[in-house]
Amino acid sequence: MATLILEDGARYEGELFGHKADVTGEVVFTTGMTGYQETLTDPSYCGQIVCMTYPLIGNVGINDLDSESGGVAMKGFVVSELCDLPSNWQMKKDLSAYLDEQGVTGLTGVDTRALTRRIRVYGTLRGKIVSGEPTQADMDEVKAWALHDQVSRVTCKEPYEIPGDGPTIAVMDFGLKRGILHSLSERGCRLKVYPAQTPAQQILEAGCDGVMLTNGPGDPADNREDIETIRALMEKRPVFGICLGHQLMALAMGAGTIQMKYGHHGTNHPVKDLRRGTCSVTSQNHCFMVDPSTLPQTAEVSHLNWNDQTVEGVRYLDRPAFSVQFHPEACGGPRETGYLFDDFLTMVRENTK
Predict the structure, then answer these.
(1) pLDDT band at residue 335 under the 50/70/90 scheme
(2) Which residues have a Cβ under 8 Å from the Cβ of 72 and sit 6 or more positions away?
(3) Distances (CA, A) of 81 to 15, 61, 215, 266, 336
(4) Peptide bond before 332: cis, by omega within 30 degrees of 0?
């Protein structure tokens, strides 16, 4: 028997799988019905214990094709039921073996509906997965737990390039999902990928036609050096930001961000494109949002979440730059907003002319 304890005293019992070690982190839930491998390998979950709301997880095992990064950055993985007999023609190993390999603790047999309802009522909570009976020391650890500067844990260590015949795009890696690189590469772009905290001057001197700011974990305000870099890049090149990149662009332009009650995590969030008049189902993973009341007069809200009316996109009217909170590359999830990569490349080509 093992237990997930929350900082408010709630507890949820289950059985360990995967790495089977005690872990502490921020507990969030995600509503995706498919794509658990993409969820596991999303670096934006760095430091978190993730609860899957879909009841059966692990049914197709783990393959070599669907990972969005080189490993798992989350601390724990909580499911209602772990599939005993996974089967898929691409499967290389089962979920438990993969989590053990990655050093990630799994907990199965949990009432994930009750856990999700609690987070929705009380907001994101810190928690700890404990083997055996929790102690007061475990609870003290949960209440004291904090994590900052997650981007430094998941960004690439050195710059690298991906060849292409089209425009050269500098990609700032704050914990990117590979789907972003694939979306740009399949449109012919040559990519120069840089670690977080790379100076703007280094990026500009190396040459690029546009800049892509990727997703990543944590509080955007922790990334002060990157905010200054983005401000400088936005003066020189067209810029497109996704998720954390969207929030960092807003901070660079003088706006503010707010921590949400329990964030948006999943693949079924409706977003209205105010300029096109269309509504798309999107993939999302974030705990912070841009505060619309702080946006400068030279910026307009371009997209809204149709569930809660939070800001999902910003377009800057005085420069070639825009950003979205959701994931247009989707993986895993719907790809209805892939047109935004085309919009970005149109902007890049017009600016080059």
Answers:
(1) confident
(2) 40, 41, 99, 102, 103, 104
(3) 10, 14, 30, 19, 30
(4) yes
pLDDT, tens digit, 9 for 90 and up, residues 23-67: 999 999 999 999 999 999 999 999 999 999 999 999 999 999 999
Task: For residues 110 and 12, give the distance between their C-alpha atoms in angstroms, rounded to a whole number.
Answer: 6
* Residues paired with residue 192 on neighbouring β-strands, in sequence order: 161, 170
Other Cβ atoms less than 10 A from the Cβ of 338: the count is 16
Sequential DSSP letters for 11-34: EEEEEEEET---EEEEEEEE--SS
pLDDT digits (tens, 9 = 90+) for 223-232: 999 999 999 9
Question: Can you give the pTM of this predicted structure?
Answer: 0.96
Question: What sign does the dihedral 63-68-70-76 (CA atoms) show?
Answer: negative
What digits encode the pLDDT tens for the residues 258-296?
Answer: 999 999 999 999 999 999 999 999 999 999 999 999 999
Of 48, 30, 26, the C-alpha closest to 39 is 30
SS3 241: strand
Helix 244-252, helix 224-234: angle, nearest 10 = 70
Q: In which residue are the tokens 């036609």 written?
A: 209
Give the H or E element holding residue 230: helix 224-234
pLDDT in tens, 73-107: 999 999 999 999 999 999 999 999 999 999 999 99
Share of the chain above pLDDT 70, in %: 100
Copy the structure tokens of residue 154.
Answer: 């998941």
Give residue 93's pLDDT. 97
What is the DSSP code (8-state) at residue 110? -
The DSSP bridge partners found for residue 190 are: 168
Q: Please state, as a whole number, how many other Cβ atoms lie within 10 Å of the Cβ of residue 49.
A: 27
Contact 138, 130 (CB under 8 A): yes
Catalytic machinery residues: 243, 327, 329
